[in-house]
Amino acid sequence: MPTKKRSFATRAIHGKKLHPFKGAVTLPIHQTSTYRFADSQDAVRYAKGDPSVYVYSRYHNPSVEDVEQKLALMNDADDAVLFASGMAAISTAVLSLVKAGDEIVSTPTLYGGTYRFFRDVLPLYGVTVRYAEAEDLSSIEALVSERTKLFYCESPTNPTVGIVDLAAALKHVRAAGRKRGVRIHAMVDNTFATCLFQSPLAMGYDSVVESATKYIGGHSDLLAGAAVGPAPFIKGVRHLAKYLGGTPDPFAAFLIGRSLKTFELRVRMQTDNALALAKRLERHPKVLRVLYPGLASHPGHAVAKRQMSGFGAMVLMEVKGGVKGAVRLCDALNVAVNAMSLGGVETLVSIPVYSSHVNMSAAELKRHGVTPGMVRISVGAEGIGDLIADFEQALRKV
Q1: Does residue 195 contact residue 11 with C-beta atoms inside 8 Å?
Q2: CA 245 to chain centre
Q3: Is the Cα torsion angle 199, 207, 166, 121 positive or negative in sign?
Q4: Residue 193: CB partners within 8 Å, gap ≥ 6?
Q5: Around Cβ 292, how many Cβ atoms within 10 Å?
Q6: Residue range 7-260, CATH number
Q7: What stretch of H or E contains 379?
Q8: What is the pLDDT of residues 260-292, one digit of tens each?
Q9: pLDDT tens-digit map of 13-40
Q10: Is 75 in a helix, a strand, or coil?
Q11: What are the start and end residues of each CATH 3.40.640.10 domain in the chain?
């Protein structure tokens, strides 16, 4: 059976190795920094581009390559490159596309680390970032110039779980590019949706970046990131990664390979839990609003139904009492864990104004749609009855 016709779960578990072979069921960890040559001609063969010659684990490593191949298959992409963190993936992928004098157009709601990279780092290298209006994606066209090289967005957004109409955004990007005679690379951060529920590449986007720390890792025990896309793009990203150095450790790659085997099982269960919890929280008198794409009340629900095959496991709620109410809630939880991450099998909560969007101005928080009473919930795989009871007892203290 051709690889692309196999199920998502089969590709995630086996990669391309669906055939009889003798050896370890789980790929061994190649925990080495360098590799022994058979003879000095190996160095010559590597210099001429022979991919079978291993030289140094900052360049390539068998444990890492196995995960990269599976991620490419899961995304129906040519290739993928693994990184030591999500921000290493984002920064390296972006820097592979822009140089001094270039411009980026982005939607306004972004993960805080990405936003700070755009705000504080890229200007140091002469790269300008312009932001479209959240409610008017046609504003993208006025922002594109002859210097625009990249369109960047994320959907659902972090932390507000907003939905960007990816098809509409891409339509405006392509129209503006044709008008100005430029080819703009379109990139999506797919961390919240994951490739299980959303396929930006199939929509026409050029590449995807993702924090593999989150759902891909799924156990709160590793840091990693990934960039996925066509072979020429990945070749450029991989080349730059050698020099920026954000390449992953072989043991982290081994842990990701383990996690991919349960990826679909975990994420589907977490998603089921998220919908049930969101429905219960939406009815609670101390909750001002709940934002979850699977709820009919979410302003982006119709778009989410169109571009996603599932709604993910991220829920945002705003409680009464502002940040004090959010603190009282988070400090009273017993099953859910108060911690600054997401995607693990444990339910995690965080307060955006104290975590991803800490120390941002009132204007920046407004642009991102973040309010003091918001609590971001990364719903885990615990028993849903336990989760609901935990949030209900904590809300009594708000």
Answers
A1: no
A2: 20
A3: positive
A4: 155, 156, 308, 312
A5: 27
A6: 3.40.640.10
A7: none
A8: 999 999 999 999 999 999 999 999 999 999 999
A9: 888 766 555 677 788 899 999 999 999 9
A10: coil
A11: 7-260
Cross-strand partners of 279: none
Structure tokens at 154: 């994320």
Per-residue pLDDT at 46: 92
Angle 231-244/86-95 helices, nearest 10 degrees?
Answer: 110
CA distance 54 to 59: 8
Q: From 3.90.1150.10, 3.20.20.140, 3.40.50.300, 3.30.70.660, which CATH number describes the 263-395 domain?
A: 3.90.1150.10
Count other Cβ atoms within 10 Å, centred on residue 387. 23
pTM for this model (two decimals) = 0.93
Give kind and range of the element (H or E) at residue 174. Answer: helix 166-180
Q: How many angstroms separate the Cα of 160 from the Cα of each of 71, 269, 357, 378, 395?
A: 26, 22, 11, 12, 20
The closest alpha carbon to 70, from 261, 211, 319, belongs to: 261
Closest among 220, 145, 139 to 177, alpha carbons compared: 145
* pLDDT score recorded for residue 318: 97
* Helix 384-395 with 322-332: angle, nearest 10 deg: 130
Looking at residue 350, its amino acid is S
Q: CATH 3.90.1150.10 in the chain: give the residue spans.
A: 263-395
For residue 206, give Cα distances in angstroms to 186, 260, 348.
5, 24, 32
Q: Which two tokens stand for residue 193?
A: 């949706």
Residue pair 319/291 in contact (Cβ under 8 Å)? The answer is: no
